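Sorry to interrupt, but I need a hand with the structure work. Can you supply me with one protein entry, sequence and fold together? No commentary is needed, just the two lines. Leave the record below and I will have a look.
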Amino acid sequence: MSKQPNILLLTIDSLRPDHLGCYGYQAVPTPAIDHLASSGIQFQNAYCQAPNTWMSHAALFTGCNPPRNNIRSPLDKLNTTQPTLAEVLKNKGYETFGLPSVSMLSREAGFDRGFDHYDLTGLLSEFHGAVHFRDLQESLQTFSKWVSSTNKPWFVWLHYFGIHIVQGQLQDGRTTPINLPDSYLKKHSPYAQHYDSKIRFCDYNFVDPVLKTAHQHSDQNNLITVLLSDHGDDLHAIESGLPGHDGNLDEQAVRIPLIVCAPGIIPEKVSVSYPVRVIDLFPTLIDLIQAPPSSSHPDEKDNRALIDGLSLTPLIHNSQETISRNVYLENLYQGCLGLRRDRYKLILSFQENSHFLDRHVRWRLDILAQLLIPDRIQRPFRNRAHRKRQREHFRKSASVIVESLCSPSSRTELFDLHQDPHQQHDIAALHPDVVQLMKADLCQLATGETVISRDYSPEEEAEIEKHLDELGYL
């Protein structure tokens, strides 16, 4: 290669792998994504570290699990002692461009660190329809204009939010963004129709034009393209009025598509079945660009020691390679932690009638709602000082919840995903030794060191309130 390869990173919100053609789904075509998969490496069992947008992207950009990157709630900020992917690439000579689609991935939370250009203007101003037509076109034009203006190796991150389903967004009989065959409509619920049509729209109107633009401004053999999702979605839960992805750690919520394509750099048409993690992408991309640490930034030599992820390059070059990876999973909002190792998946949660759940988790959720509900409907006696005290408790309660989940009284479930991919049969009683070892490792990961964030300004807090409400997390 004459120069370092360009890097295109696409994160598609709420995209499940089992609704893509390349992962075996036949109901709705996704030709652009399928072609990308056939030209590179497709990971069959990739996992996010938390089933929501801000925590998953924090893991992606830092290579660290939530306890170490410090993003465990919408109020937190990235750990400033850990480098971000964009910062490392910028130090290696890259020009960096980030275009998120929701303001929760904000500058105030630190998601802009390392990006030369980070554009959040105009987002969600029209967030009432199923697809952001206007914002999508503006994003494509902004990307095309920027990538045509740079002469340096570039790192571009584009985030697509149009697939995300918001509670109450769809009513029976509502027209889907793209017409679907009658044979499909007869077999699938309105929510599934709505979801699949938005995936098809994304494939045709986002992935395809982005890839074409990238190829126009980069030698195909000098381009690394990564496509993944931040989390999945449980459509059955959504139909029942429950959270689709921020409610549990089931496979539908935490298993994601992950495709890495780099012709001339890595093999093509390779499928990897071994479990991998979002946090593994950071060291993988650094390996793939084959750039040594910069002499002007000696701290880069220590980056690997600061991250939890492991490079995927051994699996990329040998899909049968087996490297033990603890797949850490967290959703403290719902009071649960998880760990996948090889074929087993361990889930720690509270007993359904737990008084601790009433006192801490449900109260914590109530605190979150009180913090983030717009001021116009706040109770008059809830002044800012009171809300600040609640926010401080919200942050501190994470360690209390983790401690309780790791106690002997927590509910412990173990699943063999090779035999039981939908987590229907708890086998914890049959494998107490496996449970003991995995629980010890999970609890060690869950109590990782965190950094206390500063308080948000009133303006920042108001922005968080507004957009969490719009995104359907309240």
